[in-house]
Design brief:
The chain is about 60% helix and about 5% strand. The chain is mainly alpha-helical. The strands form two sheets. It has a three-stranded antiparallel beta sheet with strand order 2-1-5. A two-stranded antiparallel ribbon has the order 3-4. Strand 3 and strand 4 form a beta hairpin.
């Protein structure tokens, strides 16, 4: 009798390349996927109410979503499915050994199945609840909108798989970085002028315009925003480059010592993506429930939460706090950082277990490489105990640090979403490391020199 997981093999799958791809081939597929993502983001959602105005731009950035397009929910359903699966795996409801090849394959199949299910259910819920309202609230119009949104969500899953197997890294990460970078450059450099005031929308042109006009008071906040963004960028790059080295020796070659590097951000940006996506989905779920007349997560004005649990997850900027006073934001200033830190630590621990990054898996890699700890006999159990002393603290400390950076970025950065900026920088840095690690065979000489010089 077939295992129920085997039926998930019927889902469409992108085949892996039969040979190792060179730099240019991977770059080509990455750019194709990126172009298709931007194309989907500008395809309007047919049948959407003309009165619909989105106020969830920061949340949509984190979810790589473009409200009112085919990808109005972005990667939200995909990430939500991954979160649920990780929690089920962590609670031992789903029993799989993700360290084995068979277990890892089954886990990936279940993840794909849950993602497809969430794409269908969540898009349907948002349309039927009125969170994404059709122009005419007939069942036929609602179904037409749901079909479009599900089609867009499934295409995003396909693009993610193409990028993972044929390009550089994760498509989901690429979509987040692309959306944030687009807003960052628009907010920083846009030459569009406000028709009422005649001022530039882009902060850097606005600073120059204010300097030339001698209006120094007008440039204070734009200047603080630009400086804060640059400072956060440099801090994230510095923190991402920190590594802890485990000293190892090759037993068969006397005097041959090497170091096994472990990143300080051991689980990279994964905990922040999950925690930030969870916050975004709570906000959007709260809006959906409010529109359905069930305001259990809070009340909304337009699409902004004004009270309840959902409002506690909206973190204010330093400018907003100074303008409106500290007293109005005490719940947010306490609960949001706490939620981010606890969420990042939880997802970091779960990801280590699910992703095969636990001490036992790393010890297996070291042992299979013929390496051992200097001063200890070559034994996998000893390796695991020593490696565990590094990995367990870094899993928690790295998650707390990256959550704290996200909070600081959210507080001080105004060019784009602070959490979005953090994710974008970490993702781009991860792509850079991935390219350097896999090699640049076949790369354009100019690109090769540029990457080697960084």
């Amino acid at each position: 009798m077939k295992d129920w997981v085997d039926y998930l093999r019927l889902l469409p799958e992108v085949k892996k390349p039969e040979k190792k791809l060179d730099f240019n081939e991977k770059l080509k597929w990455t750019l194709i996927v990126l172009g298709l993502f931007f194309f989907l983001s500008v395809v309007p959602l047919y049948g959407l109410s003309s009165n619909y105005v989105s106020q969830l731009q920061d949340l949509s950035l984190i979810l790589a979503a473009k409200i009112a397009s085919l990808i109005s929910l972005g990667i939200g359903p995909i990430v939500s499915g991954s979160i649920i699966l990780q929690l089920l795996k962590g609670a031992d409801v789903i029993k799989l050994d993700t360290n084995s090849k068979e277990g890892k394959e089954k886990y990936q199949l279940i993840q794909k199945g849950i993602s497809v299910l969430f794409v269908i259910i969540m898009n349907a819920m948002y349309v039927f609840s009125g969170a994404i309202p059709p122009a005419s609230a007939t069942v036929f119009n609602q179904i037409v909108m749901i079909v479009q949104l599900v089609f867009g969500g499934l295409l995003l899953m396909l693009f993610d798989e193409i990028c993972t197997k044929w390009g550089f890294g994760s498509g989901i990460s690429l979509f987040i970085a692309a959306g944030v970078s687009q807003q960052l450059f628009t907010q920083a450099l846009s030459l569009v002028q406000d028709p009422t005031s005649g001022l530039f929308i882009g902060y850097i042109p606005l600073i120059l315009q204010s300097l030339l006009a001698g209006n120094f008071g007008q440039l204070i906040w734009p200047l603080i925003s630009v400086i804060a963004t640059v400072a956060v960028f440099l801090l994230i790059v510095f923190a991402s480059s920190i590594k802890v080295n485990i000293p190892l020796t090759l037993g068969r070659v006397r005097g041959y010592n090497i170091k096994w590097p472990i990143k300080f951000f051991y689980t990279s940006n994964i905990p922040v993506i999950f925690a930030a996506s969870l916050i975004a989905m709570v906000q959007m779920l709260g809006l959906m429930l409010f529109n359905a007349g069930i305001p259990i997560l809070g009340e909304y004005s337009g699409q902004s939460p004004t009270s309840g649990f959902a409002s506690w997850l909206v973190f204010p900027s330093i400018r907003t706090i100074i303008t409106n006073g500290l007293g109005a934001y005490v719940p947010q200033l306490i609960f949001y950082p706490l939620f981010m830190i606890v969420g990042c630590v939880l997802f970091s621990i779960l990801w280590v277990q699910v992703g095969g990054q636990d001490a036992g898996s790393v010890a297996d890699q070291i042992h299979e490489s013929g390496l051992s700890i200097p001063g200890f006999r070559r034994d996998k159990r000893i390796l695991e105990r020593v490696v565990k002393r590094y990995i367990d603290p870094l899993t928690i400390l790295g998650a707390i640090s990256v959550a704290a950076l996200a909070v600081v970025a959210e507080l001080f950065s105004a060019l784009t979403s602070g959490t979005g900026l953090l994710l974008s920088v970490m993702i781009i840095y991860g792509f850079y490391e991935n390219i350097k690690r896999e090699g640049m065979q076949g790369a354009n000489p100019t690109v090769k020199k540029l990457l080697e010089a960084i």
